[in-house]
């Protein structure tokens, strides 16, 4: 009996069973989130987990272009792969990749919302893929003739995905509104935040509140610090409340899906269900393979 080989086979079959089951349940759960969350208008959206539809716009004074094509956009993701061969088979290996972290501006007929795409599953409609002999297609690099011989005649594949201004966007994530008098004041937390900020410059704190110049703050002086911090916190809150409302969408703190897509929720949910079916099949195959291997060794 090949014990090491059997152990490897069991690990693969169990991994396929567990991984496929986990992927199936995850995709089904995410599809349910998408279908159960009602679509909100930006102006009237509740604070928390919401679903929005709108049109993308560029940020003022922001010039964003795709790193591989140079085409203007509001968000991009790219991947560069190199064709490698060991004499028997060839495969593409990722040698460089990147994702835009620029904020997105989404609007509907009621307002605007800024979206931080960090942590989101982004599904853009635009995807370009092509091949070439240069590592970076927009740079001037020797790639042919004698120079191509020196570089080994390498072959690269480029993939770039983009979101463009004027395109529709489906977004589901954590919605927050700041300013406009929406935020209540947590007096204690705001006071402590100001004190922590002041402690960062302790010399300045002593200069302001150390009345007897002994290099320390006694209880009476700390009481003055707390009172000043409370007044400062209230003043900051009052000023923030007079600012126009700013709507933001960010990655949820809980394990809820954060998705930005050029496609609607029905299409995304359908894809998630197909992926869940694939995970279920993988789980079943892994389970059958595990039972078979256990039967081989007489444990079942």
From TrEMBL:
As for subcellular location, the record says:
Membrane
* Keyword terms, alphabetized: Ligase, Membrane, Metal-binding, Transferase, Transmembrane, Transmembrane helix, Ubl conjugation pathway, Zinc, Zinc-finger
Catalytic reaction equation(s)? S-ubiquitinyl-[E2 ubiquitin-conjugating enzyme]-L-cysteine + [acceptor protein]-L-lysine = [E2 ubiquitin-conjugating enzyme]-L-cysteine + N(6)-ubiquitinyl-[acceptor protein]-L-lysine
Q: Which residues cross the membrane?
A: 6-25, 276-297
Q: Which GO terms describe its biological process?
A: protein ubiquitination
Cross-referenced InterPro entries, in alphabetical order? EF_Hand_1_Ca_BS, MUL1-like
Q: Which PROSITE patterns match?
A: EF_HAND_1
Asked whether the keyword Membrane is assigned, the reply is: yes
The record's EC number reads 2.3.2.27
Whether Transferase counts among this entry's keywords is yes
EC supergroup of this enzyme: transferase
Q: Which GO terms describe its cellular component?
A: membrane
User: Where is each E3 Ubiquitin ligase MUL1-like domain found?
Assistant: 85-181
GO molecular function annotations of the record: ligase activity; ubiquitin protein ligase activity; zinc ion binding
Lipid bilayer topology: Multi-pass membrane protein
Q: Check the record and name the Pfam families matching this protein.
A: GIDE
Q: Which named protein is this? A: RING-type E3 ubiquitin transferase
What is the scientific name of the source organism? Pseudomonas indica
């Amino acid at each position: 009996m090949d014990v090491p080989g059997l152990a490897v086979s069991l690990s693969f079959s169990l991994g396929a069973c567990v991984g496929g089951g986990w992927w199936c349940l995850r995709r089904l759960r995410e599809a349910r989130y998408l279908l159960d969350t009602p679509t909100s208008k930006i102006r009237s959206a509740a604070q928390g987990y919401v679903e929005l539809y709108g049109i993308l716009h560029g940020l003022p004074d922001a010039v964003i272009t795709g790193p591989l094509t140079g085409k203007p956009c509001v968000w991009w993701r790219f991947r560069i792969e190199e064709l490698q061969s060991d004499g028997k088979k060839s495969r593409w290996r990722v040698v460089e990749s990147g994702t835009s972290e620029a904020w997105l501006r989404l609007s509907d007929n009621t307002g605007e919302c800024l979206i931080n795409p960090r942590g989101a599953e982004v599904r853009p409609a635009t995807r370009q893929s092509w091949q070439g002999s240069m590592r970076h297609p927009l740079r001037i690099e020797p790639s042919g003739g004698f120079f191509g011989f020196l570089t080994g005649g390498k072959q690269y594949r480029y993939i770039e995905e983009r979101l463009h201004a004027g395109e529709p966007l489906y977004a589901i994530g954590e919605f927050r509104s700041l300013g406009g008098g929406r935020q209540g004041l947590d007096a204690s937390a705001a006071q402590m935040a100001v004190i922590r900020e002041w402690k960062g410059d302790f010399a300045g704190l002593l200069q302001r509140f150390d009345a007897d110049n002994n290099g320390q703050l006694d209880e009476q002086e700390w009481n003055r610090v707390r009172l000043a911090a409370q007044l400062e916190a209230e003043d900051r809150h009052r000023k923030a409340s007079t600012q126009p409302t700013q709507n933001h969408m960010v990655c949820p703190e809980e394990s809820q899906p954060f998705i930005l897509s050029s496609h609607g929720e029905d299409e995304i949910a359908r894809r998630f269900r197909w992926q869940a079916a694939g995970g279920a099949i993988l789980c079943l195959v892994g389970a059958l393979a595990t039972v078979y291997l256990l039967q081989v060794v007489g444990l079942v």
